[in-house]
Amino acid sequence: MCGKISRMFRYILKRIFIFIPTLVIITLLGFLISINAPGDPVERMVSSAQSGGEVGTQSVSQMKDKLFWRKKLGLDLPVFYFSVTSYAYPDTLYKIGDKPEREALSRLIADHGNWNAIEQYHNGLIRFCDAQLFFKPDTNQLKGYETNKVIEDLNQIKFEALSLKASYEEAVMQAKINKIQTLLNKYSFLNDSKRLFDQVVLDHQNIKNTESKWKNYIPKIAFYKNNQYHRWLFGDGGEFSKGIIRGDFGTSYVTKQPISEVIYSKIGWSLFFTLLSVILAYFVSIPIGVKAAANRGSRFDKSSSIVLFMLYSMPSFWLATLLLMTFANPDVFHWLPASGVKPAIGYPEGAGLFEKIKISFPYIILPAICYTYSSFAFLSRTMRVSMIEIVGQDYIRTAKAKGLQENTVIWKHAFRNSLLPIITVFANIFPAAIGGSVILESIFTIPGMGSEAIFAIQNNNYPMIIAILTITGFLTLVGYLISDILYALVDPRISYK
Amino acid sequence: MEELKKDISIEETQADFSFRKYAWTQFKKNKPAYYSYKVLVFLAIIAIIAPFIATDQPLYCKYKGVSMFPAFSFSNNCEIKDPQTGNIENIQYDIADWKHMEAETIIFAPVAYTPNKTDYDNADYVSPGGKQIFITAAGEEIEMPTKFRHWLGTNKAGEDVLSGLINGTRVSLTIGILSMGIASLIGILLGAMAGYFGDKKLQTTRGSFWTFIIGLFFAFYYAFIMRSFELADGFATSSLSILIELFISIFIFTAISSIFYWLGKLVGKIGFLSHKVFIPVDSIISRAIEILISMPLLILIISVAAIAKEKSIVNIMIIIGLTSWTGIARLTRAEFLRISNLEYIQAAKSMGFKEFRIIFKHALPNALAPALVAIAFGVASAILTESALSFLGVGVPPTTVTWGSLLNAGREQFSAWWLVVFPGLAIFITVTIYNLLGEGLRDALDPRLKK
After folding, report:
1. Strands (DSSP E) found in B302-392
2. CATH architecture assigned to A259-490
3. Could you count the other beta carbons within 10 Å of the beta carbon of residue B139?
4. Number of neighbouring beta carbons within 10 Å of residue B276
5. Are A22 and B407 an interchain contact pair (Cβ–Cβ within 8 Å)?
6. Which chain A residue lies closest to B431 (C-alpha atoms)?
7. Least CA distance to B377: which residue of chain A?
């Protein structure tokens, strides 16, 4: 016995060990999705803080803000432990903060292959932009010009120069350069800027003259110890992020709250409905399956088979909408509330747990039905099949031949053995219930992770999406682990190897 | 039982007995499955002819002596010269007001509405049995003529529900073909390899193994990393350009990896590099399957669909296909494990056939049955996933009319029951027939399971 327990313990440890790579891959996938998400997160954080502002003008405080968020979100680091690029790429391209700028540069490298010339051009362009940004003509210089026109032209130059930084197509770049040159030539007081820009133009020519496309054909692997993924997993020593292994999923793009806080406040309802549905499904389906199998071919068996099959094919969102349409519709029956899990005004003050349950009960009925029925149909069918298999076996016939009562045979002898398959399918229904919560929670507006996921997707709140993906992946794995352990506990024939 | 035996013995005595015929007769005996098959054929026909049975362009029209077939025509306009005045009238098929045209003869499609076009006179949830109005060319308001009726009502914007349903049939059947096509390609290939080779059968030399691994790195580099901007641009433009760019990349990938494969054969002959190693194909593929089934697939699909720059139903189908091959792979693997130990495979091996030939020509045809069952069930769940996504409005462009998006419109107005009942029924029926088909196939193809 002792040996058996230790063997089982080892088996469970081994299962947990297999889960680790799976979890790593889930986090990797989540991370991959988040870094490929469209848009620049820093831009988003800053612009949601200070909406408005002129095109092409960036105040100093905004620049500081950007630097802060870049550091806070960890975007000043390389993406992963290693990167495969071409020989033409520098190792330090990730240091360029602006996402469109970085992409423009890497496209230029892919087109021309000479980083030195491109870097020179880019640095020259930055110098020019900086000079332009803080350039203000004094009244002496403005003499002889129309003031409004001058300001308009200067803004135009800034705008073109900034967008030149993010351009990579030859024709577009040339057009922008020409435009800036004509504008610069208009005013004599812009001579300094003009000299700077002439250098940029020369550097731009130089990129084309010293092309080395062959470098792109040589792959190169660069390794980085400190990177975004590492930081995302393990944190940066507590300065901005503690890492997801310590439960820190980063900051929500929408509310700027820590994501873990949002999720901890939402996960309760999701788990409640998932577990409730699984438990209910087991309680309802076992008697039905057993009864159908015991009276095989009877009217009960046939009719329950048909109904279960139809329930199994029924889309949950359809059933949910139909139920809402019928039982929460003022025009038909207004028996139940249509959305939420508690009254809009909240629970009355000082309400005990029992009272809270009583108040929430009508809200829970419809979602609970929708959560339960599909796994219940699946379970009953599985139960029936496995029971039929067991009832056909010799030892059952022997028991019957001994003159035991039908009920004793079914419940005492057959039932226990037929439980095995139904336990293993726990591994199937638990993830299905978690996945289904996305749809049902958003139909019934349950404040859980599923509706949060939809909300996050509608608002492009990627850190939240990734956090939910990782957590649901983790829960799914736990479901598998539980079913493995249950299976090992119930069936003495299983060897733990 | 007695009868069944007789059946089989009669069929066996026939000279042209084949498993396929036997399975077909078994399948036909399963009435629900057989009728589902018939319904499926009917749905497929509807899907194919959908543009001709639900369109506002007439099938045939004779106007001022000129015959036109607008619904069938590839061009979009027709110039008609008035014989008396000599004026040229240009009729643009897609925007012409056919219903008010004073044509000599005009034959409309059975459902005279195009899915995305609004009927302003009957907007704001007109019910199927309720009053529908039609405004004649003279401006008179009359009861809707039978041929223009909205048989299943309209939605808020006044779009015909039946027309949307008919065109939605296309989407749901395309999912079956595209996603399950991708899934079965991956699933059958990987399952066959895992089951046939196991962990101890694919033997190679150390040299060829490492050469091939290096080759894969180079192939990946030249096919995907170096072409990453081309691929990104392709994804940003259109579905066609995605396919072209992906095809080029896959071609480069295959070309380079096969060059290294042949190179590896040479390298494997040198000294210590010719040491034999086994490739644990089964372990690798089984781990991959295990990992994929532990993923919350719906949430994964939603997340991937959410970051796609271009919202399109084809992307969704591809994502569903790429993530739902595990069931097919597992069943094919199990079948291959059984088959690869059978005597006829041993015989084929002893005759010195190439492994490629044994797998695809000898083993695969006998291993397809379980995969077919899994595909039927897979289509059902792919349709459910797609309709759930379009119901939630994730990753599907708002202009695409699907059953899920029609159902979603019904959520806003519960009194418009027809928007909930009919699209839901369509999804339900389709999913049910695929599930019944799957059960029927399982019973027909695997007599061991039939009890």
Report:
1. none
2. Orthogonal Bundle (1.10)
3. 6
4. 10
5. no
6. A313
7. A313
Distance in angstroms between the alpha carbons of the first and the last residue of chain A: 16
AA letter at A315: P
Give the Cα-Cα-Cα angle B400, A310, B168 (nearest 5 degrees): 15
Straight-line distance from the first to the last Cα atom of chain B, in angstroms, rounded to the nearest whole number = 10
Write the ipTM.
Answer: 0.82
A216 contact B CB<8A: yes
Residue A450 one-letter amino acid: G
The residue type of A489 is: L
* Longest Cα–Cα distance in chain B: 95
Pair B307, A36: CB distance under 8 Å? yes
Interface check A448 vs B, CB under 8 A:
no
Q: Which residues pair with B277 in a beta bridge?
A: B204
User: pLDDT by residue (tens digit) across B159-202?
Assistant: 888 988 998 898 889 988 899 999 999 999 999 999 998 888 88
The pTM assigned to this predicted structure is 0.81
Interval A349-362: pLDDT, tens: 777 788 888 888 88
Please determine, for residue B101, whether its predicted confidence score (pLDDT) is greater than 60.
Answer: yes
B269: burial class by Cβ within 10 Å (0-12, 13-18, 19+)? exposed
Of A18, A22, A472, the CB nearest to B299: A472
Cβ-contact B43, B169 below 8 angstroms: yes
C-alpha span between B292 and B285 (Å, rounded): 11
Contact between chains at B421 and A322 (C-beta distance less than 8 A): yes
Q: Which residues of A touch B229 (CB under 8 A)?
A: 106-107, 110
Min distance B277 CA to chain A CA atoms (Å) = 24
Largest pairwise CA distance in chain A? 118
A84 touches chain B (CB under 8 A): yes
Domain range list for chain A: 82-223, 225-249, 259-490
Contact B299 A216 (CB under 8 A): no
Residues A48, A49, A54: CA angle, nearest 5 degrees: 80
